Amino acid sequence: MSQTHVIVNPLSGERITILRTAAETAGTVLDWELLLAPGGRVPSSHAHPEQTETFTVIEGRMKFRVGWRRRIVTSGQTLRIPPGTVHHFANAGSIPARVSVESRPALAMEELLETAAAMAQEQHAARRALPRPVDLALFMTDFEREVQAPFLPRGLVRAATRRLASLARRRGLDERYRRLGRPGLVGADDRN
Fold this sequence. Notes:
Blueprint: E1 5-9, E2 14-20, E3 30-36, E4 52-59, E5 61-66, E6 69-74, E7 78-81, E8 87-91, E9 97-104, H1 109-125, H2 133-142, H3 154-170, H4 175-180, H5 188-191
Antiparallel strand pairs: 1-2, 2-3, 3-9, 4-7, 4-9, 5-6, 5-8
Helix pairs in contact: 2-3
């Protein structure tokens, strides 16, 4: 097993510990533990087009919205989110929630978590309410197999983000964003 890798997102209150990487599981799964502060929540609703995400609450209470349904998941309970299902989650209690999470297949989910946290750290330091639109387009293009925007036609979002990301790359506007990710981060253009 590799050494412990911890990812901290100051905006969402997430502390993510990678337990088993894609490399360790031949890409079948990314196992991670989520420690979510009271009041912490994933920044927005989203879906994973190709991945199943399974959450098992170890301590605390989590509030999930899966599609239009709301659900409270407590210690010892598991919730499975099928591919393509829009979801959102938050800590529903007054203590940190500790959750075991499994992303299947792993794809580039670890890199997505790292990049999202780096973007949040920069956004937090600059006291911006939202990420830069160019950064968001590059992120959505880099990780289009791992995440998609909810409720909007996937083809329309892909066309818009790919066009903006391409323009950003041609004009060199992607350099700062690329520095946020892990060295050697593979973009979607290189993975397809």
